Amino acid sequence: MKVKVSELVLVLVLSWVLCVSAEGKSLFTDIGITGCSDSDGEELYALDGEELWYADFVNKRGVEPQPSFIDHMSYEEGAYEGAVGQQQICKQNLKADLQSYKNPPLQLDPPSSPIIYSRDDVELDQQNTLICHVTGFYPAPVKIQWTKNGQKVTEGTSINVPFPNKDGSFRQTSRLEFTPQLGDVYSCTVNHPALDQSLTRIWDVEVQQPSVGPAVFCGLGLTVGLLGVAAGTFFLIKGNEIVYKVFA
């Protein structure tokens, strides 16, 4: 794991715990992250790369972004208050680190080109979710902005907290709730200090039409087959007529 220190990112502490199931067959990775800067902070708990709980320091609450199809895991009361306390410790450590390293220059790694896709198969007038994903950047976070037909969109958007990769970089995902309409064009734009210009990916509404190829070939084959049967029947009858005339 690379450890990077900059004037923007103060301290990042990663705790990895490996747990084996009761059967001794499955291996899981549990991770806790505490990070802070002069203007931001992060407290996150995840299992196998899926977020279980994170501190929302803007709205001053803990968030449990777990999907509905799993057994919900709740963290004990006071988890958010504990995260606030961890931020104070983190900021103190940051101050000491910056003094020790004498304010080292900022190290920047740009994000990858964004990937944008729909959560479900696209059906017109059926609510869906667009997902924009970037990875490989440092420091965190990135800023992600959505547009619809060239107009900025904020309603129905969300973004997860930065998640660390094994090489010390980060990945992050933003979502947009939308209802597909034919002809609509969406875009996801990513900004980061390491970029000279924004990265934008465009996605337009396309509905997959049923393929007519198999039906055409099937119909053609059936037609040819029927013609063959008709021709065979015709020659069979004519042949019988000739035989009958010869021996009549």
From TrEMBL:
Signal peptide positions on this chain: 1-22
The protein's predominant localisation is: membrane
The places in or outside the cell where this protein is found are:
Membrane
List the transmembrane segments: 214-237
**Keywords from the UniProt entry:** Adaptive immunity, Disulfide bond, Glycoprotein, Immunity, Immunoglobulin domain, Membrane, MHC II, Signal, Transmembrane, Transmembrane helix
Q: Name one GO biological process term.
A: antigen processing and presentation of peptide or polysaccharide antigen via MHC class II
Family that this chain belongs to:
Belongs to the MHC class II family.
Name the UniProt record assigns to this protein: RLA class II histocompatibility antigen, DP alpha-1 chain-like
Q: What is the lineage of its organism?
A: Eukaryota, Metazoa, Chordata, Craniata, Vertebrata
